Amino acid sequence: MKLCKNITSRQLFILLLLSSLQTITTISLAGSYSPPPIETFEQGDFSNFNWVSSGDSDWTVTSDEHNSGTYSARAGSVGDHGSTALKLTLDCISGQISFYYKVSSERYYDYLRFYIDGTQQDQWSGDEDWTQVSFPVRAGRRTFEWTYSKDGSSSSGSDTAWIDDIVFPVD
Ligand SMILES: [Ca+2]
Ligand SMILES: [Ca+2]
Q: In a 3-state reduction of DSSP, which class is residue 125?
């Protein structure tokens, strides 16, 4: 106990104080709540996440429609037999992905489709105003993909689809 002898009461007080502060910091960090990442497209571009657009034309961020704020993402303009995709890969926790979509297309022929790891989760066509949907997600690296695909003839409505307010199951 030679060490202890050399610690004055003042030094002991400081040690106890530092120890208390550390405990308080640890508790407050453990108790802090971080909201799940959400894509609102309110930057006015795709810079918030590592989005990749592919297919016959690129998706764009647009102010012509929105669920929240001013902006949403809109499918690229494609012709008959055309398709345009928007993809994002993220390391996920087990949970749900939710988002809003709006579609204005030839019903039963030109579709907005949503995929997780290449497996179609659902599809929408015709005229639907902003609607929220959610799908279960398993933990791990997942690729989320939205496509707008047209059949061989005809177009209806705005002939496109929009997405907004995507909540990802990410820590
Ligand atoms: Ca928005
Ligand atoms: Ca069509």
A: coil
The domain limits of the chain are 2-31, 38-167
Q: Which residues surround ligand 1, an ion (CB under 5 A)?
A: 40-41, 66, 68-69, 71, 164
Reported as a single tens digit per residue, the pLDDT across 55-85 is 999 999 999 999 999 999 999 999 999 999 9
- Which residues lie across from 61 on neighbouring strands? 73
Distance CA(102)–CA(100), nearest Å, equals: 7
Q: How far is ligand 1, taken at its centre, from the CA of residue 10, in Å?
A: 57
Q: How far apart (Å, rounded) are the C-alpha atoms in residues 123 and 133?
A: 11
DSSP letters of 55-108?
A: ESS--EEESS--SSSS-EEEPPP--TT-EEEEEEEEEE-SEEEEEEEEEES-TT
Architecture of the domain delimited by 38-167: Sandwich (2.60)
Does the pTM of the predicted model rise above 0.85? no
- Contact between 76 and 159 under an 8 Å Cβ cutoff? The reply is no
Total Cβ atoms within 10 A of residue 80: 12
Distance CA 24, CA 26 (A): 5
Q: Is 25 left (phi over 0), alpha (psi -120 to 50) or beta?
A: alpha
